[in-house]
Amino acid sequence: MKILRKITPLLILMIFSIIWAIKIFLSESDGQGWGLLIAFALIGFAIGLLIVDFLLKKFVKNWKKVILIESGIVILFIGWYRYQNRPIIFELPENFTEKYVTVIYDVENANELGINVFTLSKKIQVPENGIILTSSQINESLPKTDFKSFNGELYNSNENQKMFIKLTDSEFELNGRNYKFKTWRIGEGEFMVSTSKDYDEYKSKLIKEFEKKANR
Questions:
Q1: Nearest Cα to Cα of residue 135 among 196, 183, 186, 179
Q2: Per-residue 3-state assignment (H helix, E strand, C coil) for 94-160
Q3: Which of 10, 59, 172, 212 would disulfide-bridge 53, Cβ 3.0–4.6 Å?
Q4: Which residues cross the membrane (predicted)?
């Protein structure tokens, strides 16, 4: 029983964090190279949990109170973590062949994204040309971005070689109005590079495509 009393919610979360960090160390880092950074952050987080658990056990002598306090901390952390990682999931159509996916904002008569502070996740269907028009503003977004293929495979996952990278936000002028947009490059392989020349060519193509729709 005394041994069981030493096992607390923070210790369980600490063990889980260490296991997760070890798993990252032993596997390949993700497509954007954040794997090792995340692993070190998890180890630091685990050390912090161990310190908090030690202090609680030292100053709170009632075991049930320790469990109650730590359970509250874990619940608050999980809620905070999930809120900070609310995703926009771009779902690609079948046989999608485009290399870029772009969202153009503040477009008259286009649909809103429908994102607010209470949105926990948002799925957006990507059209075949990869260009999404919305009347929402560019700051209407969620903290995390994911891409999912037609058959449900997530990009930037260790399960496959599907990748995406976020390019620099930009804007263009058309008919006296400025339109801001976000662009992601998608593809397959162990490494992906998007040159400024490729991006400039795509931007020119994007403006032409948007101009065609605007003149209809």
A1: 179
A2: CCCCCCEEEEECCCCCCCCCCCCCCCCCEEEECCCCCEEECCCCCCCCCCEEEEECCCCCECCCCCC
A3: 10
A4: 7-26, 32-54
